[in-house]
Known about the structure:
Layout: H1 13-16, H2 19-41, H3 49-66, H4 74-86, H5 91-104, H6 108-118, H7 125-138, H8 140-143, E1 146-152, E2 158-165, H9 169-174, H10 177-196, E3 200-204, E4 211-215, H11 237-246
Antiparallel strand pairs: 1-2, 2-4, 3-4
Helix pairs in contact: 3-4, 3-5, 5-10
Amino acid sequence: MALLHSHLLHPTLELLHNHSFRVSCLSQSQTTIKSKTVERLKTEYKPNVLDNLFLDSFRNKMVQEAGWDSEKSGYDGLIEVANRLMIGRSNSETTEAAVRILRSLFPPLLLELYKLLIAPIAGGKVAALMVARVTALSCQWLMGPCTVNSVDLPGGSSLMTGVFVERCKYLEESKCVGICINTCKLPTQTFMKDGMGVPLLMEPNFSDYSCQFKFGVLPPLPEDDITLKEPCLEICPNSIRRKQVTNNTDASKCPKA
């Protein structure tokens, strides 16, 4: 998020002669700017009753797969269960477990019918358009505010088959690149392609926590996917502990990714 230029905080030259007014003006301006910045950072989607049902259902499926549940309620508990899902599993095993969770949320017949009847229409464009809109409407409880946008498709055309997540709540709350990649990005890409016949590329931005979904676009091979080579987030508590123990900046590399 771009910072406001410092000259916007300065009063006019005439006011500089009045020290008390200058201090008051600066204080009020800085407070206003700070409050607006915090407000932008804290923009959140307000869940409704249906969203809470989605969260409970998703968490219950995750608990069944992890074999453990958190004592915390709501979203905080969901994040702890997601973290537990990775314990004792390799990255690929975690991804496979997350794919099973996603599949369990849908009636098997529905997935098969969508893949068979909808996915082939217009070279997959209709299915990608539909999934993008459903994702933007139904998944904000998990990711936060998001909008449908245009993405470039193979062949040079562009279509409104993208979903842009302004600031992913799942990534921000988990504070972990590995959890993002292995319980969200990779399994969702796999589930959409294999389960619904819709290619998907997810591009999380680990600097500002945004994420771009590109339905209708195949993801790159693992060795070419730069998101799989990301270091730990600065806010990751495990990264901080590793740095303190090893006194080595190389310890910032995320071992879970």
